[in-house]
Amino acid sequence: MIFTKALEYEDIRKNIDKDNDVITIIGCETCVRVAGSGGQERMKELALKLMSDGYNVKDGFMVPTACTPKIFLAKLGRDVNTILSLACEAGSANLERSYPEYKIVQTIKDVGLMVADTDKNVLKVTMPYKGSENETGREFKAFIGERNENDNSLPIMEMAEVTGVAK
Amino acid sequence: MIISLRSISYDDLKKQLSKDDKIVINSCSSCIVACGIGGTTKMVTLENMLRADGYNVLGKDLISIGCTLNLVEKHRKDIKKKDVYDEATVIIPLICENGLKGIEHVFSDKKVIHIAKTLGTGNFTMDRGVVLTNPFENVDLEASVEGYELYEVAEELGLYEDFFDEFDAPEIEKEYVTFNVNGEEIMAEKGANLLTTCEENGIEIPHLCYDEELTGAGVCRMCLVKIKGARDLQPACCTPVSEGMEVVTEDKELNHYRRIILELVLASRNHNCLTCSKGIPNPMFSCELQKLIRKFGIESSRYENTSEPILVDDSSPVIEYDANKCILCGRCVRACEEIAGQCNIGFVNRGSDTMVAAGLNVEMDQSACAACMACVNVCPTGALSERVIHFIGKDWEQVKVYADYAE
Fold it and tell me: Which residue on chain B is closest to A126 by alpha carbon?
């Protein structure tokens, strides 16, 4: 699975236009939900905040996976011209390629790959993208994304591995 | 989706093995399958190759999501798999490098031989298959919305664009039998499954409870066939082929039985295609029941439907369970046990009240469901499906895209 973090609200807001953008939010229910950066609650939180700040958010769709053709299960309204992607960067790339006439705005950034334990509700970053090397071996609360108090709930990596970018 | 390619040749793999090794091949059933180097068929290919070369392959095991550590641990401890895993000295996982971390931990007492290199993340597309859009730094490719096709990346990085080639191994010595199906002579490996052998030879046998990734159950009775000398009709999905067997897969009597079964299924509960996520067949998912109903030209059931509507369980964020569309084939029950390693889904009640339920007959999100989708992927109807939710209005109210009520 892919570990992601939500972008700051201000960073999202500066990419959308109050007057011209008619917005649909498309969210993925797989990795970003488990990582706590996406999912229904986060989508609602983002949508209500944008609406209260005067942005024209029409609706939102949660699809099973955003990195597959299942994004077409979202039925976009005729007046929509902007899609906020509540998906990983691969999901956003899929949206950009599939909806070339729409403005796609990312709301989530990739950190790296992760291993999860859904019984313990813990995630561990195993293979980071460039710039997130310091996240290697770190553990987070599944579905919430908060940093765990310690990093040894999932003893899957030797300390020697907790180095640099994915090799 | 995590993108991986095969990184070693078959010869490289063999160099890491000895004839004394006791091998188990396991595979993740997620991204690696889309990348063409994992899944049941690839495990079978590798198993056959290694056996042909004289290696001792004890078994193979499909894991719904290999990067979910607790699921891998449950597979290792599974009462039906534990002895094989305990006896094994070598594990060959068909899994990405991320999932490999969990495999190496769970099987730390074994030699683990990895065959894949993980390159980054990407998409599954209908026209170009899997593409790499967000490569890792060490892959030395720029991020690309269009994405790189796997053969391009393989060429660039000196990796292999597909799975091991079965012709790299000597032909395995198999015992073949010849038998007769509907007057046609067929040759197949002794003990092969009758249903799949017939399908491989272009003879379609209707079925609902059989899935090639699960053990046969023979409960839907749709694949009953006539076998000369057998006491009664036999389920093809649970019958091995043998020398001289004479089989009839389709005639007026068998089709009559199948029509009755389908009409009884239609009369039990509510199978309304107009409000079902699998109602419109498409390349990603289609309803196997609907396909059979169309094949047999059934427009309505002659039996009265006395079933009471059952509340749809949409408690899970990802799975919708509509028991009204369940045909009790048991595929989900077997998938949860065999592929997820969870045993979280089972049958409850008896007789006409029988239904599939999670945990101790609780809502899905109150059970131990890991949302690995093993059950959803094998469900032949719209009973278990992936949720698609539409949110609208100033209060962000949710409405289902497919629902038994008007939106």
Answer: B98
Q: Torsion over CA of B123, B124, B128 and B129, rounded to 10 degrees?
A: 130
Strand partners, B317: none
- Which residue in the block uniquely carries the two structure tokens 């809502």? B363
Task: Report ipTM (2 d.p.).
Answer: 0.94
| CA–CA dist B96, B7 (Å, integer) | 11
Chain B residue closest to A125 (CA)?
Answer: B98
> Would you call A68 and B124 a contact, using CB atoms and an 8 Å cutoff?
yes
Q: What is the DSSP letter of B244?
A: T
Question: For the purposes of burial, counting CB atoms within 10 Å of the CB of A7, is it exposed (0-12), middle (13-18) or buried (19 or more)?
Answer: middle
Cα–Cα dist B391/A50, whole Å:
14
Q: What is the pLDDT of residues B261-296, one digit of tens each?
A: 999 999 998 888 887 878 877 777 789 999 999 999
Nearest-CA residue of chain B relative to A46? Answer: B396
pLDDT in tens, B165-214: 999 999 888 899 999 999 999 999 999 999 999 999 999 999 999 999 99
- CA-nearest residue to A130 within chain B is B137
Q: What is the pLDDT of residue B134?
A: 97
Q: Which residues of chain A does B65 touch, with a Cβ-Cβ cutoff of 8 Å?
A: 1
Q: Return the CA Rg of chain A.
A: 17
Which A positions 89-108 lie with beta carbon below 8 A of chain B? 89-91, 93-94, 96-97
DSSP characters over B310-376: ---B--SSSEEE-GGG-----HHHHHHHHTSS---EEEES-GGG-EEEETTTB-GGGTT-----HHH
Distance, in Å, from the CA atom of B404 to the CA atom of B269, rounded to the nearest integer, reads: 13
Q: Helix, strand, or coil here: B138?
A: helix
If residue A128 lies in a helix (H) or strand (E), which one and from where to where? strand A122-128
CA distance B336 to A147: 31
CA B159, CA B9: separation in Å to the nearest integer?
A: 9
- What is the C-alpha radius of gyration for chain B, rounded to an integer number of angstroms? 23
- Tokens, residue B300: 């309505």
Spell out which residues of chain B touch residue A88, defining contact as CB-CB under 8 Å. Answer: 121
**Angstrom distance (rounded) from CA B298 to CA A89:** 46
Of B65, B133, B317, the CB nearest to A39: B317
What is the mean pLDDT of the segment spanning A40-57? 96
Whether A67 and B1 lie within 8 Å, measured CB to CB: yes
The distance of A14 to chain B (nearest Cα, Å) reads 22
Chunk chain B into consecutive blocks of 10 residues (it has 407) and report each block's average pLDDT, rounded to whole numbers: 97 97 97 96 96 96 96 96 97 97 96 97 95 94 96 96 93 91 96 96 97 95 97 96 97 97 93 82 83 94 91 94 95 97 95 93 95 96 93 90 52
Indicate the SS3 state at residue B146: coil
CA distance A91 to A88: 5
Is the CB of residue B385 less than 8 Å from the CB of residue B322?
Answer: yes
User: Which residue is associated with the tokens 């905040």?
Assistant: A49
B179: region left, alpha or beta (phi > 0 left; psi from -120 to 50 alpha): beta
